[in-house]
Amino acid sequence: MRSLGFRERYLSGNQPDLILDFPSFIGLATLNLTIPVIGKMASRSDLLQTAQSLVSAYNSLDIEAIMGVRSADCVNIILPASLGFQTMNNEEYAAFFSGNLHLLKDFHLTVHDTLIDEAARKVSMHLTSSATTAIGDYSNEYMVTLHLTEDGRKVDRFDEFADSKYSAEFLPKLYEYKAQTDKANL
After folding, report:
1. Cis peptide leading into residue 80 (ω within 30°)
2. Helix (H), strand (E), coil (C) string for 82-103
3. Which helix (H) or strand (E) holds 74?
4. Secondary structure of residue 68 in the 3-state scheme
5. Which residues make beta-bridge pairs with 46?
6. Phi, psi angle pair for 76, to nearest 5°
7. Which of 18, 63, 78, 131 has its CA 20 to 30 A from that of 91?
8. Mean pLDDT, range 150-176, rounded to an integer
9. 3-class SS at 149?
10. pLDDT single digits (tens) 59-86
11. CA distance 117 to 105
């Protein structure tokens, strides 16, 4: 009895196709079935590089660089829900973040730990941030999970767990300052 054969070959460019060879029952003919393999699977290195690119973009406070690491359908979820943030698509997140950039000076994220799940295309990071604001120093702590595209080069979903106690105390004061400043500039 013959076994089922598997082999991979490259039919066009670098796009792999999986070739399955099925021997016939009488051994006179072989059925060759070609199944295209769609896209390149993300490697651990791809996933880590994308996560590092996102951290670098935030450290530069460059909204174009931040948005450039996100897929066209990316959503941002700031958790826990008790903080009152809604899920934001790219347009909403860009408006939210851009509207607050001027409040932060010398913003810096520090990565303390990174966990990578290649099969699920997820990167989780423990981060802390520091910045200077008009109402005092800002420092927060986060656990983020990045859900990445199939090739690992873009973020499809960004789950951000912030320090809820600190956020609930500091952010209302910062937003009140912003509202007063915006009103004074009218």
Report:
1. yes
2. HHCCCCEEHHHHHHHHHCCHHH
3. strand 70-79
4. helix
5. none
6. -115, 125
7. 131
8. 89
9. coil
10. 999 999 999 999 999 999 999 998 888 9
11. 33
